[in-house]
Amino acid sequence: MRRVALLFVLTAIGLSSSTGSADDGITFVRDQDVIYGRKYGTALTMDVFRPKSRVNGAAVVLVVSGGFFSSHEAVSPVFARPLVDRGYTVFAVVHGSQPRYTVPEIVDDMNRAIRFIRHHARDYGIDGDRIGVSGASAGGHLSLMLATAGASGDPNAKDPVDRESSRVQAVACFFPPTDFLNFGAPGKELIHATDHNKPFRPAFDYRELDKESNLWVPVTDPARLREITRKISPISHVTADDPPTLIVHGDADNLVPLQQSETLVEKLKGAGVEAKLVVKPGAGHGWLTMVQDMNVLGDWFDAHLKKRDGPSDGK
Predict the structure, then answer these.
(1) What is the rounded distance in angstroms from the CA atom of residue 235 to the CA atom of residue 148?
(2) Which residues are CB-neighbours of 227 under 8 A, at least 6 positions away?
(3) Which domains does the chain have, with CATH numbers?
């Protein structure tokens, strides 16, 4: 996961301009640090890449996350461009990062981002009922959490953004963790922070507010840990109304087993959801030609985010 975050940073070098022109080959306008929410006094931001021409009215959210680390410096125009060139408005979302925030809190950030985008769809010239999502590794996991566990908004929320749905209409992602209760083999549970590789442990160091002491205390009860772990595993939320799902995964991945994608795709198909797994022979956890595979993802979004006639319920 750390390697993926580094890949996003490296490919961003030399492509950080706010706007582009036909002369420099850049065909998008970039709006940086758009605030989509705040928590504990901290702004949550995204960068928006808007095509200068061939706008198709659909959106793709790129989850900027590797190992559940996220930062503005990791936003990569290189990964956005293949989608922008097809006419998509691309939203590169930076979530609250570990080590400060844990996975459940990060999932909340991503739900907020989708609601914000949908609420401001008209401002960005997009159809709020045609939103796709993509990411790699932890970003893939968060993409699938939106796909399987995105929810209707709260109609009574004070903030109008929170009244919007966080459901998406298509997902295409790379090598995602999908089942922390069966990680690589049936019954292999990753419920404790120390069950994870050292760099990623803070993201799974769950704490809850103790009402008696009014302090945030570690969660130690195995049943509660297992409950949280199930809640952050996309495979636990699969239902028949989930969106079409594409996953690209290497069969030599030593960090996130291919089994994670295989079992999720099998369960999605069993529920009647269109799902496809593309296996990259010999590929590990990230590969140098990943940018080229963005065209495979683009084809998936083209097939499933075409303009539809009639009303939509946000699913």
Answers:
(1) 8
(2) none
(3) 2-180+234-304 (3.40.50.1820)
Higher-confidence position of 14 and 134? 134
Q: Render pLDDT for 135-152 as a digit per residue (tens, 0 to 9).
A: 999 999 999 999 999 999
Residues sharing a CB contact under 8 Å with residue 158, sequence separation 6 or more, in sequence order: none
Question: For the whole model, what pTM was predicted?
Answer: 0.90
pLDDT at residue 53, as a whole number: 85
Mapped onto helix, strand or coil, the DSSP state of residue 30 is strand
3-state secondary structure of 57: coil
Q: Which of 93, 153, 158, 90 is nearest to 315 (CA)?
A: 153
Q: Is the Cβ–Cβ distance between 194 and 188 less than 8 Å?
A: no
Residue 67 to residues 16, 176, 247, 302, 304, Cα–Cα distance (Å): 23, 11, 18, 29, 28
Measured at the CA of 84, the angle between CA 81 and CA 87, to 5 degrees, comes to 155
What's the number of CA atoms in the CB half-sphere (13 Å) around residue 282? 2
Number of C-beta neighbours around residue 27 at 10 A: 16
Residue from 293, 268, 270 nearest 280 by CA: 293
Residue 52 to residue 2: CA distance in whole angstroms: 33
Distances (CA, A) of 215 to 209, 212, 224: 6, 8, 18
Compute the 3-state secondary structure of the chain and give helix, strand, coil in percent, each to the nearest 5: 35, 20, 45
CA 200 to chain centre: 17
